Amino acid sequence: MDTYDADGITLERVEEYVWEIPQEGEMNAPARVLASEALLEEIADDMTLEQLKNSTHLPGVEKHAICMPDGHQGYGFPVGGVAGIDAENGCISPGAVGFDINCGVRMMTTNLTYADVEGHEEELVESLFANIPSGLGGGGVVESGVDTVEAILERGMDWALEEGYAVEDDLAHCEDEGRRPDADPGVVSQKAKDRGKNQIGSLGSGNHFLEVQRVTDVFRKDVADAYGLTEEQIVVLIHCGSRGLGHQVCTEYTREVEQAHPELLDRLPDKELAAAPAGSQLAAEYYGAMCAAINYAWVNRQLIMHRTREVFERVFDRSWETMEMELLYDVAHNIAKKETHEVEGEERELYVHRKGATRAFPAGHPAVPSAYRDVGQPVIIPGSMGAGSYVLRGGEASLETTFGSTAHGAGRTMSRTQAKNEFWGEDVQDELEDQKVYVKAQSGATVAEEAPGVYKDIDEVVRVSEELGIGDTVARTFPVCNIKG
Amino acid sequence: MSFELREHTADVAVAADGSSLDATFAAVADGLAAAMCESVPADGGERFDCTAAAENREALLYEYLAELIYQRDVQGVLPVDNRVTIQHDDGTRTANAWQLDANARGVELATIDAREVKAVTYSEMMIEQVDDGWRAYVVLDV
Questions:
Q1: CB atoms near residue A130 (< 10 Å)
Q2: How far apart are CA A285 and CA A92, in angstroms?
Q3: Is A315 exposed, middle or buried (0-12, 13-18, 19+ CB in 10 A)?
Q4: Which end of chain B has fewer beta carbons closer than 10 Å to its terminal beta carbon, N or C?
Q5: pLDDT in tens, B30-53
Q6: B12:A254 CB<8 A
Q7: Distance (Å, whole) CA A162 – CA A183
Q8: In chain B, what residues touch A443 (CB-CB under 8 Å)?
């Protein structure tokens, strides 16, 4: 098959797993979808391709807008979207980052094996659920005043270190060492800070979760050794973002950009793509506020990890240091960052928008933490409760193909309303328990909405990532306990 | 005045209609509550007021729903049984040409089984006048 017709949009196969929507009309660049034919059929089943095509109308899109193999319909820019936009003559779009700024994942390793945890699963899931705030109105690990929020926005994980919620090694294993230097708390509104002060260290709901997992497969032993991963080992995966604070930042800046730059908005086919021209005051302010929200999200995940260490200490009656509960890596998948990439033979500074896409820098890149620089940046791809998750490393072809990015998850194929019609939360929990996966949630509806059957085949997503050389599989994990909102 | 939750791959959409713009906005707000809670209690909770202002109809709906989400987080309540009064200053195109006064019953989150809607989006947003009133469509980020 050399072309694929999807309801008025024709894609041309450029090479194996690379499909292109050619530039036409008001598009500023072509768009590309990275997918096998099976994944492309699912991607073409909703508005993903139209949203991807719309994103090429943003001024300054370089090379091509890209949809990752797990892409699906979102709002404005599709989930799984990557766009490298000229940071001098282009623009930055809050909607192309998303409301949940620095939604991301972290993985913590332990020296426990699955055999150590067997028999403790129910106690563990109950204790995690009781101690880690989740759901709507569930509070946070830390609830305090606006001064604390401002310190977190300014200093990120440095704040957590100063307050005793982190150790030096945690910072060394976090993207950007857990602190965006461009953060400006002064351009984050009082409303955003008010929403943030009672949610510091909380999962939220939707597709966010904390999962105790066991490593079932190691595919690249040398890299797994560098990451500290071995078969049958217990690890903990935490997936959440910047909570109401980040949502408020995006909500407000989308409106401010809409009002301040109507001439740019008029050129865009979707109002949710509203963008501030590069170099404008609003672009600088949004970037400062977004970076501050990024810091908040890192602290959010750090506090959840800190509380998880305490829970393990009580359940297994030994210190977290004895269990070697160490951060493997924390990486964002909803973010825009100023990064330097090669475009047409020149080094250019771009706002790389990744919305539901994970940074995946290869070995040798200076932004990869020194502990992993020889093997490549860890990429954590959470899957469904029934299929497990993957750890990848940034691939050699990622910088050239995707501005250093790969997938962020399995990607949904079924709406939440349909999922609730097809699945019953308690049935899903019982079936998972038959597979020795213990799930506890604030809401049965959330379990139904997140049932394994609503997601794409994560094995296929990861296989395409590997075939394209943008992210190489290192290890696979399977759930043991899962808590969610 | 009624609403329906509609399918969306990752999120959820609300389709609403009403005999007036006021009733239609209130129905969208009730749809927002339904997207967070499947069984809203028939009573309980204190009523509270909120306001919004914007330069056009769509922006007003965005600001109104965003305000309800903000109030949810800072008050710790789910806004239900929504009532809306909209005023439009004809002939002006100022930032406050459209104004809204709203009132909702705030059901304490601690008393219900509710999930989070993160934000209101402009994606696919539609507000249009039809023969017997108005209808609206909004995608919510879950």
A1: 10
A2: 11
A3: middle
A4: N
A5: 999 999 998 999 999 999 999 999
A6: no
A7: 18
A8: 113-115
Contacting residues for A254 by C-beta, under 8 A, at least 6 apart: A94, A95, A272, A274, B122
> Judging by beta carbons within 10 Å of its beta carbon (0-12, 13-18, 19+), is residue A266 exposed, middle or buried?
exposed
Beta bridge partners of B51: B101
CB contact under 8 A, B5 and A417: yes
**Do the beta carbons of residue A91 and residue A277 sit within 8 Å?**
yes
A94 at interface of B, judged by CB pairs closer than 8 A: no
Distance from CA of B30 to the nearest CA of A (A): 17
Cα–Cα distance measured from residue A383 to residue A105, given in angstroms and rounded to the nearest whole number = 11
Out of B10, B72, B76, closest to residue A412 by CB: B10
With a CB-CB cutoff of 8 Å, which residues 97-156 of chain A face chain B? Answer: 98-100, 135-137
Count Cβ atoms below 10 Å from residue B101 Cβ, excluding itself.
14
Which of A136, A250, A259, A446 is the best substitution to test chain B (most B C-beta atoms within 10 A)? A136
> Tens of pLDDT along A155-201?
999 999 999 999 999 999 999 999 999 999 999 999 999 999 999 99
Cβ distance of B9 and A415 shorter than 8 Å: yes
Architecture of domain A3-484: Alpha-Beta Complex (3.90)
Identity (one letter) of the amino acid at A347? E
Contact A184, A291 (CB under 8 A): yes
Helices (H) and strands (E) in chain B, counts: 2, 8
Which CATH number characterizes residue B15's domain? 3.55.10.10
Parent domain of B11: 2-141
Active site residue A353: no
Question: Burial level of A166, CB count in 10 A (0-12/13-18/19+)?
Answer: buried
What is the residue whose two structure tokens read 């001439």?
Answer: A263
H helix and E strand count, chain A = 17, 20
Domain count, chain B: 1
Inter-chain CB proximity B9 and A72 less than 8 Å = yes
Cβ partners under 8 Å of residue A468, min gap 6 = A17, A18, A34, A395, A397, A401
Q: What's the angle, vertex CA A96, arms to CA A185 and CA A26, rounded to 5?
A: 135
Query: pTM of the entire structure?
Result: 0.97
- Using the Cβ of A76 and the Cβ atoms of chain B, whether some distance falls under 8 Å is answered with yes
Give the tens place of pLDDT for each residue, A62-89: 999 999 999 999 999 999 999 999 999 9
